[in-house]
Specification:
There is one protein chain. The chain is an alpha/beta fold. Helix content is 33%, strand content 15%. The protein has a seven-stranded mixed sheet with strand order 3-2-1-4-5-7-6, sandwiched between helices. The longest helix is centred in the last third of the chain and has 24 residues.
Length: 319
């Protein structure tokens, strides 16, 4: 099969994988430790090679020469909610990512994390990681991107590291923001909200006529199927949404008050297509959705990486 290839680490429910697929990458393997997330990946793409394994035990040598290594590494070590323990946090998988880069020697690397990793607290951490990548032959850089700049109906700032082998790095450029603004919550969720005949949609849509707060996924240690801590729930209430819990179905015809979102609604706000499947119970499915890298953002980054690698491949073939 032709096309550029990718190896994905901590694949979760498939947001980044879907975006990269849409950007033209063919996944040679997707590594994920959570069994429900693995089930979600298989349910949506039965042909994907899903590897249910702890990253610390994963051997990347069989994938040597892959075009792109993409990873959504755990965020709690660098998030304010996770106490920003960084290196001291047992969930920090950057050392494993570096080992895997050494083993498979990809042409490019993409790592997504929370914006907290760009805080001054982690300046030395970022500097050391870039230095380690440089020793392996890569030119790397960090950038903060907002999902709303790429059509996702929430701000959702994320720190992105892109590293490209030095001999190819000159062709890479960061994606430009979309010309069209992100659609408001009321528009994205209209069909779902009125699916059971809710008569209050018109009134509610006036409150929800803007993008959403950043969706919080929680961790395996903390967080359940709701839209986040008190401050986040206040922000949702301004949109007329009850953030304390996730509903099993859309509001009924005569429902009054603030509706809760369903899993499907949250997935739409993350940029997933309506037919994307999430396996497991409500808490597990919500974490897969809430922790996902929005597919439209992954696609925008993937297209730029694909363009860079394709240009360099064409130059090598021509020479």
């Amino acid at each position: 099969m032709d096309g550029l290839t990718s190896l994905e680490l901590c694949a979760g429910g498939g947001g980044q994988a879907l975006g990269l697929e849409r950007a033209g990458f063919r996944h040679v393997a997707l590594v994920e430790i959570d069994e429900n997330a693995c089930a979600s990946l298989r349910a949506n793409r039965p042909r994907w090679n899903v590897v249910p394994q702890d990253l610390k035990e994963f051997n990347a040598k069989p994938y040597r020469g892959v075009d792109l290594l993409a990873a959504g590494l755990p965020c709690p070590p660098f998030s304010r909610a996770g106490k920003q323990l960084g290196h001291s946090d047992e969930r920090n998988l950057f050392p494993e990512a570096l080992r895997i880069i050494q083993e498979c020697k990809p042409r490019a690397v993409m790592i997504e994390n929370v914006r907290g990793i760009l805080d001054s607290l982690f300046h030395d951490f970022r500097k050391q990681f870039k230095s380690d990548l440089s020793k392996l032959g890569y030119k790397a850089g960090w950038k903060l991107l907002n999902a709303s700049d790429f059509g996702v109906s929430q701000l959702r700032p994320r720190a992105i590291l892109i590293a490209v082998r030095k001999e190819e790095a000159g062709e890479y450029s960061w994606p430009r923001r979309s010309f069209a603004p992100a659609r408001p919550v009321s528009e994205i969720l209209k069909e779902e909200m009125i699916s059971r005949g809710w008569r209050g949609y018109g009134r509610w849509s006036k409150l929800a006529n803007k993008i959403a707060p950043t969706i919080v996924g929680g961790s395996h240690k903390h967080g359940g199927p709701d839209l986040g801590p008190t401050r986040a729930r206040r922000a949702w209430a301004e949109l007329g949404v009850d953030g304390l819990g996730i509903a099993n179905e859309a509001p009924s015809r005569d429902f009054s008050g603030m509706p809760k979102l369903t899993l499907g609604m949250v997935a739409l706000l993350q940029g997933f297509p309506p037919n994307w499947i999430f396996c497991g119970g409500k808490t597990s499915a919500y974490r897969q959705i809430g922790n996902a890298f929005p597919p439209p953002v992954a696609r925008a980054l993937g297209r730029q990486i694909h363009k860079c690698l394709s240009v360099n491949l064409a130059v090598r073939v021509a020479s």
